[in-house]
Amino acid sequence: MQTATLYKHHLNISNPSEWQHPEVTQERINTILHARGLARLEHFLDQSFQRCIDESSELALLQRVNDLLSDRNIMRLIIEEIEGDSSRMLWVAENSSRNPNGFYRLMLLGGTSFKCRAHIWTDVKFGNEAIHDHKCNFASRILKGGYTNINYRDALHTNGVQLRKHLVSATDDSRQAKAGDKIDVTIDGIMEFRERSSFVMPSHQLHQLKNVKPFSMTFTTRGPVRPKLCRILLTDETQIERPQIGLTPDIITSLLYQLKSQYIFDRAD
Q1: Residue 109 has what pLDDT?
Q2: What is the per-residue DSSP string for 201-251?
Q3: N or C terminus of the chain: which is more exposed, having fewer CB within 10 Å?
Q4: Which fold is adopted by the domain 2-264?
Q5: Are 135 and 202 in contact (CB under 8 A)?
Q6: Residue 7 pLDDT > 70, yes or no?
Q7: What are the beta bridge partners of residue 4?
Q8: What's the rounded Cα separation, in Å, for the pair 84 and 88?
Q9: Average pLDDT over residues 236-251
Q10: What kind and span of H or E run contains 200?
């Protein structure tokens, strides 16, 4: 698996995967899932994230958890429990959503300090994503397909692209824009992510996805909501589209089937 160390210049750390969280192991996760199920695993991971002493430790744990849970065998166990529990299926449906840019965010498990989702692109053409940052730190792994990730930074007194900035509340899932000002941004790095690529990203990093391959899939683990506003950078002509929160059980069943057939049981790679 390829691990991208993209953001160490922000945090002054080396490869986040080198940080040790000895309580979080594949054997421990397997044991909890087999013996006690998803609810106990969520409690265990919540406790682990609450023990993080700083942002670097959280980013390291995010990558460790994401890499372990995106293992095919672990994901198979998670999906089997979801499919066998009607209340869990209802929770997944209520907490999943469809992004206006053409992909589904399938919630698989989560607690008070973390959330794990599969992102599944079902549209052949990916929409024009705005430059944005996030309300949480997160780690991601490409399961199928891939895309280009472009990082940006604020660029005062440079020849960056001037875009209108809208601030969105970190707890406002409807992503309604609030009044903003204009800033300059400039490109701060371009990475090509392909199958088995894995990376971590701090919440303050402005970025944008482009050239998403049709029917791509990713697995993402997000940390706790941080005390900040999300930034979405828009041109004057661009409008924010709200995601569709909550999906039908039929859509969830279809997305779980795609995840199993195209990743878990697909050994072509």
Answers
A1: 97
A2: E-TT-EEEEESPPTT-EEEEEE-PPPSS-EEEEE-TT--PPPPEE---HHH
A3: C
A4: Jelly Rolls (2.60.120)
A5: no
A6: no
A7: 199
A8: 8
A9: 76
A10: strand 197-201
